[in-house]
Amino acid sequence: MQNLRSGFYTHLRLFSEFELSRMFSTRRGIVSVVTFAVVWYFILFYPLRFAASVMVQEKQAMHGLRFFEFIGLGGYQNWSVPELNVFWHFGLFIFPMLSITLAADQTCSDRERGTLRFLSLRSSRNAIFFGRFAGVILIQLLFIVFAGLSSLGLALYRDSTQLSIGLHELLIILLNLWLVILPFNAMMAALSASVKSVRQATLWAILL
Fold it and tell me: Which of 88, 130, 133, 188 could make an SS bond with 103 (beta carbons 3.0 to 4.6 A apart)?
């Protein structure tokens, strides 16, 4: 029983490492990483920095409060670091969409190529399913941490005295974003195991 359990965790780790290597060592994965970095660069240095600077300037102005309430950022006056407030709201839209894109191909391609049957001869289906799921979660967590640290760096560039407060708020945001993306990844894992192609999984996710 113990050997079976250790074998399961070994296969779980191997499939997670495979997902990480597929993202960070293949051409397709590197293109995805570079695309995310470029998109986040423009988000960071244009809408995020602009909104944070306006929050700082208008924090005591009532018309500024009404404007940010209108766009869904009405609680900005309760945040010590405006950049992290904007990062939180951007992250609630960006990272679930990223989950749908990154997690759509957990088992679809293996089923199409016939390699899923080959893998299941040497490992349990649970290890394949949860290993791929854990790998995709780790990849997205790395993206979230990268985006959060860059937002914190932008805040510290404006005011270096906010390091301790910013780290505390950032840890809370990272934990909550991780909890937010979990059901999206679970949905994509179930769809990927049920449908025949990545396109079908993505379309079903958009419809749902």
Answer: 188
The alpha helices in 44-124, defined as continuous H runs, are: 49-57, 62-70, 82-102, 108-113, 115-122
Closest CA to 18 of 122, 115, 95, 106: 106
Backbone angles phi, psi at 25, to 5 degrees: -130, 0
Q: Which two tokens stand for residue 124?
A: 């349990």
pLDDT value, residue 62: 47
Q: Say if CB 64 and CB 54 are below 8 A apart.
A: yes
Token pair for residue 92?
A: 């609630």
Residue 58 is which amino acid? Answer: E
Half-sphere exposure at residue 62, Cβ-oriented, CA atoms within 13 angstroms? 0
pLDDT digits over 105-140, tens only? 877 777 777 777 777 777 887 888 888 899 999 999
pTM for the full model?
Answer: 0.85
**Rounded to the nearest 10 degrees, how much is the dihedral formed by the CA atoms of 71, 74, 80, 81?**
0
Token pair listed for 42 = 């423009």
pLDDT score, position 136: 92
Q: How many CA atoms lie within 13 A of 187 on its CB side?
A: 18
